[in-house]
Amino acid sequence: MSELNLIREPIKLELKEFEKHFKKSLKSNVPLLDILTNYILRKKGKQMRPAFVLLSARMFGEIGNAGYTAASLIELLHTASLIHDDVVDESYERRGFFSINALWKSKVAVLFGDYLLAKGLLLSVANKEYVLLEIVSEAVKDMSEGELLQIQKSFKLNINMEDYFEIIRKKTAALIAACTASGAKSSGASDEHVQLMKEFGQYTGIAFQIKDDLFDYERNGKIGKPTANDIKEKKMTLPLIYALNVCPTSERRKIISIIKHHNRNADKVDEVIDFVKKHGGLDYAAKKMEEYKLMALEKLNSFPESDAKKSLILLLEYTINRKE
């Protein structure tokens, strides 16, 4: 049994039921929308976020209609955010497939993302799940704020540690926190337990993002060298911020100049990668990732042992040990 299948075992049947709910939530009378939804359904990912929702729900009881609504609401939001991200980043590939904007242009992609967000709102209202709607709407707000804060700070490349953690808390961790909080709430967990699960999701999300930061400096199996996409896009990630904080001022100025003016020059980008490694940026980021993993585990320790809890721990481990 694969690692992901082992993680999903306590909710194996419920994930299949979720897929039916999710597919039903996408239905439309507009032919183009049906073509778009069929396209995204064909290239579904690892379904980590629905798994976070359903495992969190299972920890507190049986998974009912509220749990499926929460998982569908999260997946609609997540899919919309990916489509919008591809437009913003002018990315033409997603998970080895052409992105929506690559095939149908940005105008269609933006409108389709808006449609998915609207379907999520209507789904929660139709089921009278107003608390779930509040949890997920808060995540949408945070994700937008995180993206805009990152864009604002990237103009001057002046992101410090405090800015970085605020950005990833909003941009990445807010959605996983919404998964675990809405899952718990859907099964009738108390407000105190919902808050603990939200904090578990938030710490997991931060560790998840730091892992993504580290990927940029790891060797890609296909090309045998780091991808350095964040450097090329002038994104200030944790390994780089740390290295810039501990290096001499003259070296800092040189590296920032490379990122500003030579971020597409392969030799210069390699120089930045070597700089980050030399100043311990990767070791520091790995250490912080481990710290957030332990903080997440501490939140789960409040709850009794169960198959769902074991799977959540395995899913946390998977997020920081994954290879892609």
Q: How is this structure best described in words?
A:
The structure is a single chain. The chain has helices at 3-8, 12-25, 31-42, 48-59, 65-88, 100-126, 130-154, 161-186, 191-215, 229-232, 238-246, 249-261, 266-278, 281-300, 307-321; strands at 93-94, 97-98. With 324 residues, the chain is mainly alpha-helical. It has a single domain (3-321), classed as Farnesyl Diphosphate Synthase. A two-stranded antiparallel sheet has the order 1-2. The chain starts with a helix and ends with a helix. The model is unreliable at 221-225 (pLDDT under 50).
H/E element sequence: HHHHHEEHHHHHHHHHH
How do the strands line up in the largest sheet?
A: 1-2
- Which stretches are poorly predicted, pLDDT < 50 over at least 5 residues? 221-225
Number of strands: 2
The termini sit apart by 19 Å
| Principal-axes shape call | globular
Give the overall pLDDT as a whole number. 89
Q: For the record, what is the CATH homologous superfamily label? A: Farnesyl Diphosphate Synthase
Radius of gyration, taken over Cα atoms and rounded to an integer in Å: 20 Å
Stated plainly, the CATH topology is called: Farnesyl Diphosphate Synthase
Class from helix and strand fractions = mainly alpha
CATH class: Mainly Alpha
